[in-house]
Amino acid sequence: MTIPLKSPSPKARYRAVFRCINGCPGDHPLNEVIYQCPDCHDLLEVVHDLAPLRETTPEEWKDIFDSRFMRTFWPFGSGVWGKKEFVCPDVQDENVVSTCEGGTNLFWAEQLGHRWGLQDLWVKQCGNSHTGSFKDLGMTVLVSMVKQMRHEGKEIPAVACASTGDTSASLAAYCAAAGIPAIVFLPRNKVSAEQLVQPIANGAITLSIDTDFDGCMQIVREITGRNNIYLANSMNSLRVEGQKTLSFELCQQFDWEVPDLVVIPGGNLGNVTALGKGFLMMREVGLIDRLPRILCAQAENANPLYRSYLAGFDRFEPVQAKPTLASAIQIGHPVSVKKAVRVLRQFDSGVEQASEGELAEAAAEADLTGLYNCPHTGVALAALKKWVLAGKVNSSDRVVVISTAHGLKFSSFKNRYHARRLEGIESRFANPPIEVPASYDRVREVLFRALESRNAHIAARI
Ligand SMILES: *Cc1c(COP(=O)(O)O)cnc(C)c1O
Ligand SMILES: [Zn+2]
Fold it and tell me: Is the same domain home to 383 and 284?
């Protein structure tokens, strides 16, 4: 027996276009190869016609989303494509390239909340995804559009991106699943071993370049600008449309209650833009009636948005990003900064920074409560902790931290932390393995000592 899928208004014609973020006249269809405004050369964004979306009531949409969520009816079981009408209505279902992304769990961080004085703390585990990061949410939309355009006869021989590691892993996997060649530009020695091997395994043409992310970005822009290779970086705003479903999914998982504060790490600033855009769109169509506060978290070593925030967002100056353990956000010249600032201005929002020590300790402290955090999630957690200590968060606030990648992609970071081999970092929560001879008495002695320190109030009886 199959449960019938609920459908929106059958007459509605959903419509979305690219439009210049500075309001230059002229719309561009989503299946056109275009990344910049032809007039002012600034970014484009995807704009949806809200009228057809409003032909279905918010309550009906909620039912529709629930009837699709995490089921197998192609492609609507995906957390992204279950919201297809709000994301990218132009792709035909048979051209969707999906790994059933989205639908990631919300972890109730009860123990961590106890430690930090928060009663309602949650972690949205976006790293529990096909390639281990939230980048899958946007990549499914971009690669599906490429498949659609190839289907329509457009000549797109390959898709390329510059990456701090996770975008390339995602692009490589989705392209492999669709049979489309992928090219990835990685800054040499600046991505983790796990991130480097992902595109290699998926058969992408993998270029390791002696520069940083901003340098790779420059080259890929030139390559894709002068050849018919499609650009997969987040200046391609199709990705933001997919990532936007993060906010939809959060609200859906909370039975359409809006959290009080969402904390998210930011590098190129596509994801914080998407998060905000999702909430704004939901409010416009009546799915929600208020907005959360947003806290964007940056590594102190790559903090141009934080600096701009201190100046009231009135000016923005790129920085030379310094190395950070949070390598995926080691970006000094974020592509989406204008969009991000525009979005953040519409929220009660803030930006906080985290030092290397703060991010590493926060990730490790949270790991002790059952999580397994990547360093970027560490940045978000550290920023939250600073805000709590500064009295900027109420203990009863519902707080959601966006975890952006799986900690298993950053094994060297974890191992070095627990071996106390991260330079300049105390490793306050280090838990190295105990080496002990194969003797009952010695093992027993070691266990007693270890349990005593952990469980001082309960005498160990073993
Ligand atoms: C890409 C990425 C980020 C930053 O997202 P932006 O959209 O570049 O701000 C944060 N964490 C991880 C793990 C990422 O891969
Ligand atoms: Zn323009």
Answer: yes
Taking the C-alpha atoms of residue 374 and residue 360, their distance in angstroms, rounded to an integer, is: 9
Check if 240 has its Cβ closer than 6 Å to any atom of ligand 1: no
Q: Which ligand is nearest to the CA of 168?
A: 1
Strand pairing category for 293-299 and 261-265: parallel
* In a shared domain, residues 260 and 402: yes
pLDDT at 461: 55
Top mutation candidate among 126, 128, 166, 330 for ligand 1, by most atoms within 8 Å of CB: 166
- pTM exceeds cut of 0.85: yes
Question: Do 450 and 361 belong together in one domain?
Answer: no
Give the per-residue pLDDT at 226. Answer: 87
Considering every ligand atom, which ligand is closest to the CA of 24?
2
Residue 412 and residue 445 in one domain: no
347 belongs to a structural domain: yes
DSSP 426: -
Distance 319 CA to ligand 2 centre (A): 25
Instruction: Based on the fold, state whether residues 359 and 313 are members of the same structural domain.
Output: yes
Please report whether residue 302 resides in a domain.
Answer: yes
392 and 450 share one domain: no
Low-confidence ranges of the chain (pLDDT < 50): 1, 460
Indicate the DSSP class of residue 405: B
The residue nearest atom 15 of ligand 1, judged by CA position, is: 166
**Are residue 110 and residue 245 in the same domain, yes or no?**
yes
Nearest-5° Cα angle at 406, 405 to 407: 115
Number of independent structural domains in the chain: 2
CA 261 to chain CA centroid, Å, is: 16
d(CA 243, CA 262) in angstroms, rounded, equals 15
Question: CB-based burial of residue 251 (10 Å sphere; 0-12 exposed, 13-18 middle, 19+ buried)?
Answer: buried
Question: In this predicted model, what pLDDT tens digit does every residue of 37-94 receive, in sequence order?
Answer: 999 999 999 999 999 999 999 999 999 999 999 999 999 999 999 999 999 998 999 9
| Cα(25) to centroid(ligand 2), Å | 8
Ligand 1 pocket check for 136: Cβ under 6 Å: no
Q: Both 296 and 398 in a single domain? A: yes
Residue 443: which domain range? Answer: 435-462
Q: What is the pLDDT of residue 4?
A: 58
Amino acid 452: pLDDT: 87
